[in-house]
Amino acid sequence: MLRPVYQEMILPNLAYIGGPAEVSYWLQLKGLFDRLQVPFSALMPRNFGLVINKTVARKLNKLCLPVGDYFLDEVQLKRNYIACAVPEPVQVDEKELIDQAFERLLTKAVRLDKTLEGFVGAERQRTLNILEM
């Protein structure tokens, strides 16, 4: 626990550049540095790069998404993929058919076991939420 403090006392750094785990580790030590009155180095996240080989590049090209889209948040990435992959969006009448199918499934599930009602209801809502994306 004291190794980083000792290290900074002997050879002080202006900044510490590290990966996510290293920066997180050093942030845990901030209170210790303050308590011992040792100057705390500035923390800087390391830059990252990604090398894509030919096989992965071919697979990514099949997804019909530009490379920049892979850095979007998950919901926006899914929306962009669906817009690209599905030429026409799911229609309201199709959602109603899916809802009716879940209603029939719920009736059968409750007859079989009353405890399945919550599970089927949750799956129904999850499916309808996915269609809304």
Task: Describe, in short, the structure shown.
This protein is mainly alpha-helical and 133 residues long.
Question: Mind explaining what this structure looks like?
Answer:
- It is a single chain.
- With 133 residues, the protein is mainly α.
- The protein folds into three domains: 3-45, no CATH class; 54-85, no CATH class; 92-132.
- It is 62% helix and 6% strand.
- It has seven helices and two strands; from the N terminus they run αβααβαααα.
- Strands 1-2 form a two-stranded parallel ribbon.
- The longest helix is centred in the last third of the chain and has 21 residues, at 92-112.
- The protein is elongated.
- The mean pLDDT is 87.
Shape: elongated
For the secondary structure, the number of strands is: 2
If strands are numbered along the chain, what order do they take across the biggest sheet? 1-2
Tally of discrete structural domains: 3
SSE inventory with pairings:
Elements lengths: L2 H8 L4 E4 L1 H9 L1 H7 L5 E4 L8 H9 L11 H12 L6 H21 L3 H17 L1
Parallel strand pairs: 1-2
Helix pairs in contact: 6-7
Quick tags:
3 domains, 7 helices, two-stranded parallel ribbon, elongated, single chain, 2 strands, mainly alpha, 133 residues
